[in-house]
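Input for the complex:
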Amino acid sequence: MSRRIWAIAFNTFKEAVRDRILYNLVFFALLLVASAPLLGEISIGVQRVLLINLSLSAISIFGIVISIFVGISLVSKEIERRTLYPVLSRQVGRGEFIIGKYCGLAGTLLVNTAAMTAGFYVELLLMTRSFTRADANILIAIYFLFLQFIVIIGLALLFSSFSSPLLSALFALSMFVAGTFAVDLRAFATMAHGPEGWLARAASYVVPNLASLNVITRVSHDQLIAAGLVGYNTLYTFVYAAAAASGAVLIFSRRDLK
Amino acid sequence: MNRRWTILAATVLVASMTASVVLVSRIAAAYPSSPMEDVLFISSPEFVKRASLGYSGLLADIYWMRVVQYFGRKHARDSMEYKALAPLLDITTTLDPNLIVAYEWGSTFLDQPPPSGAGDDNAAVALIRKGIQNNPDEWHLYFTLAFIQYLGQHDYLGAAKTFEEGSKVPNAHPWMKIMAAKMLTDAGNLETARYMWQNIYNESTDKNLKHNAELHLASLVVDEEIPQLESAVSEFRQRTGYNPSSWRDLIASGLLRAIPRDPTGELYVLRNDGHVVVADLKKLPFINRGKPE
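Predicted:
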């Protein structure tokens, strides 16, 4: 990573901290402390499963909300405050600016996810009194959630490179929802014929394949996640994020900023 | 000026919130809403799963909590109807097909006769078969199915087959094989039922399951003791030509050694017609004999 990209990424992280993005950790901590034992009390035999489902879903929802709503404002805020112009006038390419912003938000989410993961494991230890090998399996699900955030940040950046913040948020949110149905779309494509079939097939590959990145329910039952899936998901995220970032760079490079 | 406004706003805020809490309870008393517990806003399990956007595990836990709360409320009121129980369990297990506890407990809730449960054997069997289909390596589910076939449906042959199938599952408890054999030889025997409940009691780590097994074991004791006591009453009648008026008559005639008590410590009730019943059915909900009319 060039020094310029690193500097933009670091500043994006600092700005996110200054914008009190990490305050969501307080809500997460409160949610864990208050909800898990309480919900365990009014149910039967699912305390551990519930803690895993609740915590990982919270990590996912917080992360996706941050990815979308911070992601869409990364570029527009700089234009609005007119802070983009001095940056671009210092020999920083528009591509470097977009990549730097991407890495900065990804770093913010990495710190955020790591902190929530630590909180979750403390709560799990308090509940079960000891860790088992199956508990390490949960880290894979959290890693997949982080991959989801990477994909969503890419989409938010892509949309914000040509659209208003409100529409970008709407588009990114729609892509997230559609992404959870990617498997159904592909199944529909195999059943449909003619133009509808082609359209459905194309749509199923354009929307992010988010279903395979959500294995929360599986790890809550200690089901092992195949190493192949970890590898393919990592590769897919890298490829999809690269495509989204490239699209964002292409559009932003041609955008008239006057 | 600024401070005055702050104090005024804070006072109005607290007063308004307090008043709204009081008013809501008054409104609830004046305008009781119709009971919503049997209403399912979305009845299609598949739709709920799609709408969960991948958070199906969390939603399954929430639905499972709803099942427990729904059953608990109805059970506490000695309800004879559990309309929403089977659909709620179907949604829960579609959202999370590996939630074993929902199959095990859910089928028990469905199977037990009202008011202890919904008394719907077929729904219980359908739920547990769904569980086996989704989790073929869980021997507990075969056990629960066989248990319903045995005690709920009196389908001893079916129960024997299920015990046999379950015994082949890896890590299945050895007494599954014994139960398969017992189903074919002495299924109607109290001893067989006692053997099964004792094993459930020994095996369970869940305190609710243990308590349930304890109640069944106690009920089996009652089912065994009541015929013995009624036989003593019958013997007394044959000797004297009339029914005993109290347990003391039977003790005086040498047919009993002491005043009999049920496993909960309550005295058995000797009725004028010579029948023996338990004092409190709620403490022994699973007895087949000695139920007070």
